[in-house]
Amino acid sequence: MEKIVIISPSIRDGRNSHRVALYFLNLLKEKGFENAEILDLLKYNFPLFHERLENQKSPSPEAIEFSQKVRSADGVIIVTPEYNGGYPASLKNAVDLLVSEWYRKPIAFVPVSDGSFGGSQVIMSLQFSFWKLGAITVPFLLRLPDIDRTFDVTGVPVDKTSQDKRAGALIRELVKQIKAAKYITE
Question: Where are the domains of the chain?
Fold first, then answer.
């Protein structure tokens, strides 16, 4: 079974987007992706970006661990809030830290918000950054609005059947891209 990591980039107090990361972790495990895990940027607590990992003289153990987990993953799901039309600085920091780890890595985006637009503006800048790094961005988008009312703090959705159907479609598209990426690199 493919190894999928979920990046939860919000480091704010009272963050709601982490609820969706927890939801995806549970759903992936229900679907047999036993190696799924969350890479929580709040726990990594990276310093402000000043140099790519590959150019650092003495990188932190956390940066090395993050790099290894992204590199070993077959695919990535990024659950990102939208801040002023863009993605959080913590995510930009983590993205820029790595280079080769993102190359031909299938990545699915799940923009979320407490409002009704579901992070619709964040995708353009996020996709562009990953395209520049040579990542494979999944052409299926799952926007999740009103997450403070549609997911509880443990990641359980109010309407699990509907959310599972929509999220399942994203996971299937990610797995298709993972298989295609393996084919083109062999």
Answer: 4-185
